[in-house]
Amino acid sequence: MSGYDHRSGSESEDEPFNPVPEVDEDDMAAQEATRRQSAVNEDEEDEEPTTAPRRPQADDEEDEEGGGDDEENDEDEDEDEEDEDDEDDVVARPAKRRKKTKRNMFIDVEAEVDEEEDEEEDDNDEIADEVHPDDLEPTGDDLDDRHHRELDIQRQMHVQKDAEELAKELDEKYRRREAQSARRAASGAIPLALPTVNDPSIWGVKCRPGKEREVIMAIQKRIDDMVRAGQRPKIYSAFERGGTMTGYIYVEADAKQEMIAVVENIPNVFMGQAQIAIEVKERPDLLRKRKRTPLEMGKFVRMIRPNLYKGDLAKVVEVHANGLDCTVQLVPRLDYGLGEDANAASDNKRKRPAFGRTVDRPPQKLFNEAEAKKRHMKHLAQTGSGNQRTFTYKGEDYQNGFLIKDVKVNYVSSDNVNPRMEEMQFFSVTAADGTETLDLVAVQAAQKAAQTGSSFVSGDNVEIYEGEQKGIRGTTVTVTGDIVTLRVTEGELKGRRIDAPVKTLRKLFREGDHVKVIGGSKYIDEVGLVTKLKDDKVTLLCDSTQMEITVFSKDLKRAADSATIGNDSEFDLYDLVQIDAATVGCVVKVDREVLRVLDQQGNVRTLLHTQVSGIVGRNRNAVATDRDGSEIRNDDTVKEHGGESRQGKVVYIHRGVLFVHNRELVENAGIFVVRSTNVVTMAAKSGRTQAAGPDLSGMNPALQQQNGGSNAMPPPPRAAFGRDKLIGKTVTIRKGPHKGLLGIVKDTMNDEARVELHTKNKQVSVKKELLSVKDPITGNNMDYGKFPNRSRGSYAGATPSYNSGRTPGWGNSSRNGPSWGGSTPTGGRTPGWGGGGGRTPGWGGDGGRTAYGDGGRTAYGGDASRTAYGGDGSRTAYGGATAYGGNDGSRTAYGGFNSGGRTPAWGASTSTTNPSKSSNTLSAPTPGAYNAPTPAAYSAPTPGAYGAYSAPTPGGPPMDAPTPGNFAAPTPGDTTGQYATPRGYGGYAATPAAAPTPGAWAETPGVDEDPRYD
Amino acid sequence: MSAGGAYIPSSQQRHMRACMVCSIVRTFQQFNSSGCPNCESFLELANNHEAIQDCTSQVFDGLLTVSDTSKSWVARYQRLEGYVPGVYAVQVEGVLPEDVIAAAENSGVHYIPRDGSVSEALPTDA
């Protein structure tokens, strides 16, 4: 073999045709061809005699044999270079000859024939040089006859030969062949026929990635077709390299055009892009074989197929003799039929799941016999006995909880396995005493392979623990790929620089070193103090958790910083997370592995990140009510009622539960859980009006009244809260396409009513404000048109009618507070109102009040006072209250009350009510609607509607009468100050007495003393 | 090559196996019915399921169709010279049983594994 190299080297220098003389391999084939040719041509006189007899044995190894023989002829050959001009013509010839010999290689008798052939060829040499090799074939055929004859003669000779002699001959022959093979095997390899410029070219053709094999098969089909049609295929070969050079196929042909002719129009071949001609030098790379890292028992691998276990860590249990299959140990992913659709058709021809990753695969868990029995008893069989707990479940074997599976070696990957510690925990070995120990050797073996230079940084203290330099310690200087340069710090070589492969190095730490975990385990980023060292396992005490953890030294580096925890968690502190369908919780601690979550019951749970289904987030619209009925929104400050009286800011509202945060609390990161009904609102965010201060419901005179036993205030009609009173009423439509039509309200929505028309059997939707309620019998308008609008929103229209119904409700307001005033619990408001009374004088003058009156009053305004209100800008409007007073008995006094300070305005208002209304922006529509109907409305229906009121209603007239009375009394009160107000109230309370307003006054003092008032 | 040519319809492609000796790619059925066209003399695969299992491999890489094993450099490089035209694999995984290797050697075929485990490109001196 060495002769080869030597010779080719010498020859390459003077090979004129070779474009790359420095590449020996390239020369070789060409040179070989030359040699062969020259051997046949010029050197026959000295070569043939030697080669000819040898050939019979040489057989397929012709090249080498020739090589050996030719060594001494090198010089001759060099001189023969000029002959290579016609080499192009002859180049195929040696191959042909070889092919011939190959074909015959299993036929013993061929030896003689071969010799014969050689002679013939020698004879024909002169011709051969000029004639194309193909043309030679017929010559050969012609000679066939002679061959046969010769052969027969030989055979006869053999037969005649002694059997013993024959055996000896054969024996010798085979021994020799064996020796040759052995020699060759020892030498490692036969030199490969490296490509030359004379070989056909190779083009790379683009194709659809993943379809390479199909394309090759399609090309094969075309070749088959051509052969069948008797044509010579235009291409020599085509191949693909699948995974390594995906998206390309390579075609070998003499000319590009020929190649294209074959490849064109094959599906998935992209001819749009130019085909790449592969350079001669690069061609062998196309066929390079990838050496598969051999699988060994006990090694860890990653699964590639089946999809269910893709990427999972597995341990090789056995590698089968054929090298194609191996048995691996896996942590099964089973759902034991829990995910099965019980109603699914029982046919097994289920549709295959979509290509690609399985969407949802069960978690890794050791095989559980009990689980399997639950649903799949029929699939389960126990095969092992004794200690070996072996089951067969659904055709797969499970041993000690592991799945034992036979897979093809190409379905596992031993590259970049990088097992993580948590994956490894399953593969821990249970010792006889029950203690579990990781098979650290296996782990190490697996991790070692994956170790690269990247885990070393300059300045690391390292030790060489393997190889000749074992024991040398030093500091890394540079890291280049997998080679680490270190400066020796101890021993004889101190100060020397040594290069060492990463694989032989481990990092060296000393007890007390402050280190950081930089990879390889779940403890990544943990920082701690080294407490124990054993080989390359380092135990450290974590700074953050004060726990001892053991990691490989390669995963550590010296640390100057401190730990940052949970930087890769998707959950943040104070996130509201969904724990299960009915449970939410607030994250109070984020650890690397777990979350601590305070759930809605106030329990702290420790959950894996994976056990939390997601972040719920904050609902901005969430509202809860506190124990007083005030609404609570996010960010309100609330205080626990009773208990520890903790207070804090509401961070989440979930159903009736508040997650409240108080920075001063230590436990649970300041979060605590309370029921919303168990807190009082301390401050509302963004100044939402809140009933701050004393509970004013006690001040509500009406309420008191009730309690006080005075039955002047009847229980409120509930109608407003039940069914819309408009429903069932006969109405006329006042506007729109159905104007003037009569109908019955069938249903109502917010501000619309469905009216069934009398004329046609048809329901139409009409705005409520466009309806006038008619008395079904008399046909008179009833003042229902403005009909209680429960949403406090639209005052304007609704108010008046509201009033009539509501007035009594007024007293009641503390109860229905929330519904009463959209913005304010009326209960609270009412007193405020009263307060206003106290302030009456100020009020009168208070422009700002106007607005107030408006807002608060709305409810109030519900009354006729509304009217007044509108007018409120000036007291005049207030005067409107007169109408109010007129509204019902109780009001009378009320009105009076109001007017206490107002007297002048009041006076004015009485007369100017209407004008004031007209000036009123609020009631802009109101006047129109009202002016006219009001009297009628009041006079007529009220009595019917409210029996209790009937008496006071007449008080309408008293309106005139009591007013003065009112005037007389309260005015002074007002002047005295706040107390006037109570009096006013008292007056109010007394109102039931109606006309006897004065009498009301008498009572006032009693009320006055009401402690709750203050 | 058999009458139908070397084409393997895509439905059959999942049954493809490659001969570990010559790397020819055929389906199991083809091996079973007609054996390996190149190595049949010593592998004797026809009608021998076990031999097919042992001597052919489902794990191979790189499909290669050759129409002319003598002129093609690819074929020469792949040591396919003298073999029938057809579909071959570039790399075949698997280990041939010892006795089969011996049988191959006895019939004059020097077996070089085609799984890339032996570096052929770099001849080393004995």
TrEMBL record, chain A:
This protein's name: Transcription elongation factor SPT5
InterPro entries tied to this protein: KOW, KOW_Spt5_1, KOW_Spt5_2, KOW_Spt5_3, KOW_Spt5_4, KOW_Spt5_5, KOWx_Spt5, NGN-domain
Bias (Acidic residues) ranges: 11-29, 59-89, 109-128
Functional note: The SPT4-SPT5 complex mediates both activation and inhibition of transcription elongation, and plays a role in pre-mRNA processing. This complex seems to be important for the stability of the RNA polymerase II elongation machinery on the chromatin template but not for the inherent ability of this machinery to translocate down the gene.
A GO molecular-function descriptor: mRNA binding
Upper lineage: Eukaryota, Fungi, Dikarya, Ascomycota, Pezizomycotina
Localization per Swiss-Prot or TrEMBL: Nucleus
Highest taxon above the source species: Eukaryota
Positions of the KOW domain: 455-482, 508-536, 631-656, 724-751
Keyword check for Transcription: yes
UniProt KW Transcription keyword: yes
Regions of compositional bias (Low complexity) in chain numbering: 817-828, 909-928, 988-1005
Assembly and interaction partners: Component of the SPT4-SPT5 complex. Interacts with RNA polymerase II.
Polar residues bias (residue ranges): 800-816
CDD domains found in the cross-reference section: KOW_Spt5_1, KOW_Spt5_2, KOW_Spt5_3, KOW_Spt5_4, KOW_Spt5_5, NGN_Euk
Start and end residues of each NusG-like N-terminal domain: 199-290
GO terms for biological process, alphabetical: mRNA processing; regulation of DNA-templated transcription elongation; regulation of transcription by RNA polymerase II; transcription elongation by RNA polymerase II
GO cellular component: DSIF complex
Location of region: Disordered: 1-145, 341-361, 689-720, 782-850, 905-928, 949-1014
Family the UniProt entry places it in: Belongs to the SPT5 family.
Compositionally biased spans, kind Gly residues: 829-850
Record's compositionally biased regions (Basic and acidic residues): 1-10
From TrEMBL, chain B:
CC per GO annotation: chromosome, centromeric region; DSIF complex
Compartments where found: Chromosome, Centromere; Nucleus
Pfam family, one: Spt4
Molecular function terms, GO-annotated: RNA polymerase II complex binding; translation elongation factor activity; zinc ion binding
Keywords for this protein: Centromere, Elongation factor, Nucleus, Protein biosynthesis, Transcription
Principal subcellular localisation of the protein: nucleus
A biological process term (GO) from this entry: transcription elongation-coupled chromatin remodeling
Residues of the Spt4/RpoE2 zinc finger domain: 16-93
CDD domains assigned to the protein according to its UniProt record, in alphabetical order: Spt4 (cd07973)
InterPro entries according to UniProt: RPABC4/Spt4, Spt4, Spt4/RpoE2_Znf, Spt4_sf
UniProt function note: The SPT4-SPT5 complex mediates both activation and inhibition of transcription elongation, and plays a role in pre-mRNA processing. This complex seems to be important for the stability of the RNA polymerase II elongation machinery on the chromatin template but not for the inherent ability of this machinery to translocate down the gene.
Family: Belongs to the SPT4 family.
PANTHER family, per the entry: SUPPRESSOR OF TY 4, TRANSCRIPTION ELONGATION FACTOR SPT4
Protein's name according to its UniProt entry: Transcription elongation factor SPT4
Lineage: Eukaryota, Fungi, Dikarya, Ascomycota, Pezizomycotina
